[in-house]
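#data-curation
PF: Archiving a pair of folding outputs for the training set. Convention for this channel: one message per protein, sequence first, structure tokens after, nothing in between. First:
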Amino acid sequence: MVDQITDIIEFGIPGGQGERGRDNQLKVGAVTSTPSGGAASASITGTYPTQILNLTLPRGEKGEKGDQGDEGNVTGLDSSLTAQVGGLIVRSAAGVIRPGLLHARAPSLVVGTSTMTYSVGTFTAAFARLSGATVLRQAGTVSRATTTAPTSNARLDVIYAIPPSSDAPQTPEVVVVQGAVAPVASLVKPAIPAGAIELAVAQVSAGATSTQGTGVVITQTAPYTATAGGVVIVRTATELAAWTPADGAEAYCLEDQVKYLRIGGTWAGGGTLMILSSAEFKAGWTILSSAAAWSLQGRGMGSTPWRSGLVAPWSGLYDLSGGFKVVTEIPIIFGVKLNSTAATPDDFVASTQPAPSSGTALGSFARKIRLRAGDVLTPGIYTTATNGPYGIIPGQPTWLSLDFVRP
């Protein structure tokens, strides 16, 4: 007997190739850290074809401490750079760098304001640092506040600049520090840190409400420096005397407006102008050598330039000039003798012989002359007249000038 077949077998015809489905755009979403030792996990959110993969990852365990690394070379690099910069800044004869501002034309770096603040303008400063120098620029104006004025007496504020503590090149820091309150005659400047450059000192009187009023007097004190071989500007003769570079260095003094040259360990420069406001002379040779008769118009060439005549303080080339206006109707000679007071007109090193006109004679001379240190130039008037006396016209002085040019 044959069993009855009950299963039904269905047969179909194969279909064609279907279209390509869209790619799934899987993006990383949140990544969450969990304490060390936990299990990692992942989850997918969203629907095809834009889904997001979120991860949960345990933190790794702390590793062992590594070996000590080699010492960095930042300081060494800074020392090398400052040494190179230091080679560009003027130094004293002992090799010490002169810190200060590289001169700009602004007459007042620190000025007052309508409040208790100081306004500090643009400047470039060379600071002595490590084995050399660093040059930093303050670009633009900055304001620095000070404290309220004292209720009595006065105090001194010092405004100064100092390099930043970081080795990286930056702008200088500008700081105001206040001194102790005291009577004006007893005021003492507050100290500033080593390596800082003083920019100005302000005297703050009691009751002042702004730094630009009469109660605050600001004095510019910033020292100047220069690049190697350049002219150093100094404010006063005292500052000039304190600056001791090697021979050949040059300086310009703002106080007397004279340029100086370093010769033999001293400053040579400027000139001496002597004025003879009144005098009488007779026939023959009249020596005008009395120091009491001449008034010194200081121009930077020493405090005792007269010894029976103008004294050359240094050996070198000078500009010698002189002039006069006298009451006379006869020819005269006004001139200068070198290391001589002989009563003859034939050894003048410079002279003038003007023709009288309308009862007066007016003349002048100018020449270059090479002198040795200590040479004396004695002025005098010579005439062959037998009458007289004649006189220098008051208000029209006789003058004699000696200006140092170069060694």
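PF: Second:
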Amino acid sequence: MTSSSDKKPITQSMLDKLAYDQNIETTTKITSTMTSNPFAMVIFHQSDIEAATYKLAKSIDDPQTSGGVKLVFVQESCAERFTANLKSKLKTYSEDQLQGLNLKDTIKQSNKIVSKLTTKTISPEGPLSYASILVWDFSQEYFKGDSGAGDGKALPIVCLFSFRTSKEAIALIKKETTNENVSIWCENQAMAYEVITATSLQNYYLNCFDVSLSPLHPYIQKAQPYALVENSYHYETLQISGHLKSIVFPFGTIFAN
């Protein structure tokens, strides 16, 4: 077990050095679940909120990608800190920029729907600003349908839920997500693996997001349990209750139990 004196916090410098943002074309050839299926994100109080919101904001900045974060679960005790950190990172776009990105109609449609809801939201300040609107306590099912731009894409709306305990988080994940990818931000190893063991998703990214799973590809194809370290990440495949699960996390930076 890693002692508390050996444990290193995840810093922005580490985030910049690690290969979080893989080339999408290359990654897609390796495993389609990386980019074609959306992510869920789980954020615990004991986590690097700065890093988590940095990755979330980068995902939100591109609503046209099919593999971005669409669902977020935040521990109640850090919800205010999460909101403040995220809101400061969301970008705003001018009307001309929206038009150039073919997003103007989509954003109008999103704003029209959300304006009718009596719920809290998170979005950047300013008129005609863009970010995928984050809506508290509404299921993804409510926002399914065409974006209004005639392209068949879903509305760029991210659904958020708060939880108090890991058991509540697990219950929400089981109820709300069919995503194959989940990014879990938590500095407690036992708690993170409790979520992995109790849920039936496919790919688990601990304290990271959208890292290439290519080192595990041969073992995923064979449904073979395996573990290795490569490019400063720990990778493993586990068979749990008949489900093969792929797990990756930055090597040497987590966990504290």
